[in-house]
Design brief:
Chain lengths: ~250, ~200, ~80
């Protein structure tokens, strides 16, 4: 996979917050000004480091929400018992500086230039972030690779990037499943992603699809196991776990 | 030198704290962070035992019921994790290691605590006797949760908390010291928070 | 406290090895299982970073950071091959 990931040592760099956008009540997108950004691939992430006045340091990783070529942005979900996310989603403002390191990752990336297999993107809650990068990139390059995004969220207001996702066309299908609360008259799916729902949504293996699963650890493991049950080969299932016990 | 992140404080930290209770380099927290090096074991109590072993033999062993029948005490102590958080006045229900070790005649100078899942940590005998160490089965008035080491963990509060082995199943009596899990990976063999003995060579 | 996977230490590994490692292929020295580093089970924020085999839970790698230096133990891996 030469040339598909940044090789060489990463260094921390100070970057400035340019804008913050609330996506949902607990989710915010943070746009950064990164001098000398080396560019990134859809699916990669970056590390954020914060230092308190007393010297206390915290580090976290966040998927890059922007497509290659767009200003660098991350989308952060506020975790109630979080140490870093409440700061990033509530306190951080344009003009502030944070340290980042990236882009990182060569496994959970879309190798669009060498593989046009149908994409199956399975997101649990904030696991949708790297997929926004992939789908924006897909649109920017005019790709006709068929793509399906199955997104599990607690409720419709919790769907991140909802208006953007609803507007996707040109060979992209977006399917929601709402696990805790559905709006009146909801005709979409309810409840967690089950093997039955996967069977209904997933590309048949005869099309040699590649699946990406991202979100809370429990979500990823359940869905990945479901794909294995559908005979998806292990090397056609890419997983990225966000940990935590939150999520849909 | 990293820039300060305006307005970032990290976890809630108590500022009204008696600093003499906080070892160098530590921050006081009101949370109880869960740190693990491996999966949380789930050992059914009917199969659980605590053993004192020596040279491949089990010298003495207690089932869960037998351990719980031993005299236990309420212990309130400060605990200090090598990852820099300290928690003051933690309350445990525990059996003193003295109660266990006095039932075995031995001349060992060191122990290696061993746990479900393979974790080990070593201590001088003097640091687990004389009222300094316990097998704790209750925290804050409730049964010790698996994520915090339940059903039972070692409690050795005068040393960094990696020495308080979670999911403890016994002590191996040793004539010579032998490094346990974190000690092998570069942590200090003894681990006194008041002398900031975090890493090997400190 | 849920576990993470090798993606979560992509930055740390790139700092240590000087190259992207999440797509590197490792072989467990205990059970022989093979797979990408990204798919290993990772325990972060312990006194050190512990990478375990997803199949048999054996320790593959441990990183302890002290004073800005990374101390890396790879003995649990039989092989580790970058792409």
């Amino acid at each position: 996979m030469a040339g598909t990931a940044v090789r060489g040592r990463l260094t921390w760099q100070d970057v400035t917050v340019v804008a913050v956008t609330d996506e949902t009540a607990s989710v915010r997108t943070i746009e950064l000004e990164v001098p000398d950004w080396a560019g990134h691939q859809a699916g990669q992430h970056l590390d954020v480091r914060l230092t308190a006045e007393d010297g206390y340091v915290a580090e976290r990783s966040y998927s890059i929400a922007s497509a290659p070529g767009e200003p660098v942005a991350i989308t952060v979900e506020r975790l109630d018992d979080g140490e870093v996310s409440p700061y990033l989603t509530e306190e951080l403002r344009p003009g502030d500086e944070i340290e980042i390191r990236g882009p990182i990752g060569g496994y959970f990336v879309w190798p669009w230039h060498e593989d046009d297999s149908p994409l199956l993107l399975l997101a649990g809650g904030s696991g949708v972030v790297p997929f926004r990068s992939m789908l924006r990139h897909r649109a920017r390059i005019g790709s006709s690779t068929p793509a399906k995004l199955l997104l599990s969220a607690r409720s419709l207001p919790d769907v991140i990037y909802r208006s953007e996702l609803d507007a996707l066309r040109d060979g992209v299908e977006v399917i929601y499943t709402l696990t805790r609360q559905q709006p009146p008259g909801w005709s979409g799916h309810s409840g967690r992603v089950t093997n039955a729902l996967l069977r209904e949504v997933a590309w048949p293996i005869s099309q040699h699809p590649i699946a990406y699963v991202c979100g809370p650890t429990a979500f990823v493991e359940s869905v990945a196991a479901g794909l294995v049950d559908l005979s998806y080969p292990a090397d056609r299932i890419k997983t990225e776990r966000y940990g935590g016990v939150g999520g849909p | 030198m990293s820039p300060i992140s305006r307005g970032f404080h990290g976890r809630h930290r108590e500022s009204e704290v008696d600093k003499s209770r906080v070892p160098p380099g530590q921050y006081v927290t009101t949370d109880f962070p869960v740190l693990s090096a491996g999966p949380t074991p789930h050992s059914p109590l009917e199969n659980w035992s605590f053993s004192i072993r020596q040279a491949g033999d089990t010298r003495k062993s207690w089932s869960w019921e037998e351990l719980r029948a031993l005299p236990a005490e309420d212990v309130t102590v400060d605990i200090h994790c090598v990852t820099k958080w300290s928690k003051l006045d933690t309350m445990w229900q525990a059996v003193s290691i003295d109660t266990l070790l006095e039932q075995v005649e031995h001349q060992a100078q060191f122990v290696l605590a061993f746990s479900d899942g393979g974790y080990t940590t070593n201590l001088p005998l003097a640091d687990v006797t004389g009222g300094k160490a316990w097998v704790a089965f209750g925290y804050d008035g409730r049964p010790l949760q698996p994520e915090h080491g339940g059903p039972a963990r070692l409690l050795v509060p005068h040393l960094y908390f990696w020495k308080s082995a979670k999911w403890v199943r016994g002590l191996e009596l040793l004539a010579a010291d032998e490094p346990g899990f974190w000690e092998r990976y570069g942590y200090n063999n003894y681990g006194d928070p008041w002398r900031e003995q975090r890493y090997a060579g400190d | 406290m849920d576990t993470l996977d090798g993606n979560a230490i992509g930055g740390l590994l790139q700092e240590i090895f000087g190259t992207e490692m999440t797509d590197a292929i490792g072989t467990c020295g205990t059970c022989g299982a093979t797979g990408p580093v990204a798919e290993t089970v990772v325990y972060l924020h312990a006194p050190g970073t512990v990478m375990r085999c997803r199949i048999c839970t054996a320790v593959l790698m441990v990183v302890v950071q002290r004073d800005q230096v990374n101390c890396v133990d790879l003995l649990g891996l039989a092989t580790l091959q970058t792409s």
